[in-house]
Amino acid sequence: MTDTHTIEKKGSSLFKTGEKILKMAWYRRKTRKKMERVFSRRPDPFHYESSPYERHRLEALLQSAQPGKELFDWGLEVGCAEGSLTHALAGQCRHLVAVDISPTAIQRARARCPATVLFIESEFFSFLPQRTGAGTFDLVVFGDVLYYLDKPASRDEFLALFPRVKSWLSPKARVILAHGFTSEKEYRHRLGFREKFEEAGLHLDRETILKDPSKPLVSCLLSVLSNPL
User: Fold this and answer.
1) What pLDDT score was predicted for residue 29?
2) Residue 204: inside a domain, yes or no?
3) Which ranges constitute the DSSP H helices of the chain?
4) 37-59, pLDDT tens digit by residue?
5) Is residue 141 in some structural domain?
6) Which domain holds residue 58?
């Protein structure tokens, strides 16, 4: 009886594991296809180059990523898109890794950025920093990307992301979050990203809400965190 019960439990566990693997594979394919469709329609689909709001957001992000007396040794940009921020960040890091799930976006970003930037085509849950040559990162930037990762099919992986990123950071490393919102509900959701990094052990240095008169219904929550010694 015990052996039968044990076999049933193992079978159930294997089934759940297999189901989870299939769900994640489906999620990755779906996300890649979606973002590839977006970038394949035309250049600059998110209006990073043409929208005053997006230019203001990118300038604030870049200002928050200003290094001290010396350049950041290793930087990581998650969701680099076509490199609107990447080419500027490259001047603030000795080594910069830029990750995006869309091959079309990566191709366009590579064309506008210096050869020193290492571009990696990957969805972020599969990203392995060990393959980049970086021991740890001194700067990590998430710009309008975390809400794409926070989906029911990837909930466990999403929650594990915050301590994972914390483990990649050098002492005093900086993590910058910039995510747009259009409602109180979305604002609370974006605020949750910062709170999860705090739960993982990061410290909030400063936080502001960016607004632009050209887009009165859209704001951006910009959070700057650091890794304590």
Assistant:
1) 82
2) yes
3) 2-41, 52-64, 86-89, 103-112, 146-149, 155-167, 184-199
4) 999 999 999 999 999 899 999 99
5) yes
6) 40-226
